[in-house]
Amino acid sequence: MDGAQRTRVSLLGCVALFLGAVNAFSPTDSEFTFLLPAASKECFYQSTVQNGSVEIEYQVIAGAGMDVDFSIVSPQGIHLVSEFRRSDGVHMVEPTEAGDYQICFDNSFSRFSEKMVFFEVILESPANDAGADDEWAGLGEPESLLEYKLEDIKESMETVHRRLERSRQMQTVLRAFEARDRNLLEDNLWRVSFWSCVNLLVMLSVALTQVYTVRRLFDDRRRVCS
Q1: Domain GOLD spans what residues (predicted)?
Q2: Residue ranges of the domains in the chain?
Q3: What local confidence, expressed as pLDDT, does residue 21 receive?
Q4: Whole-model pTM over 0.90
Q5: Angle between helices 3-24 and 150-225 (to 10 degrees)
Q6: 119, 103 in Cβ contact below 8 A?
Q7: More exposed terminus of the chain, fewer Cβ within 10 Å: N or C?
Q8: Which of 132, 133, 150 is closest to 141 using CA atoms?
Q9: How many degrees, rounded to 5, is the angle at CA 68 between CA 119 and CA 58?
Q10: Domain 29-124 is classified in which CATH homologous superfamily?
């Protein structure tokens, strides 16, 4: 095999490796931000496979009180998690059952204030891992990749992928925290500005009242002297 053929084979191997990695590392997590009206309840459904795992993280990022009721119900109708008046939480269900898990956010206790809620669902399926191993196994012999070991490349790419996914998840959570802090800051700024204006008006009213009273006092003395 001459140099040109070897280069062609190596390029084809790299393309196959890239395509296999894309299929193996298909995203299995999702995130969502929604507005929960006052005195209402919203439920979402997440499909899972047998013996997998699902991680659910939520945060209330806007609204008076910054709290909601949270629950997770299994496909069999069993309440796995029930939390009341919480602003955030992280829950892991492992192993999962085959079916749809119910994820509910309840704002029934609040009659006037709506809430903005962010939550993220991270799925891990053993079936996906097995399929990825089969795809990696069918890429070819190590000699087709210019004497690189396929297992080393696989391990390195999986490590990079896990770190990138973890970094992305942390950035998403940090963005949710930032939005929550910004809403709290804007709410507190409005309150401080409002009460500052009220105090200023009260002080001006007291000052004008004092000036008026003193002037009336001197006017009364002039009239008595005359």
Answers
A1: 41-123
A2: 29-124
A3: 42
A4: no
A5: 50
A6: yes
A7: C
A8: 150
A9: 15
A10: GOLD domain (2.60.120.680)
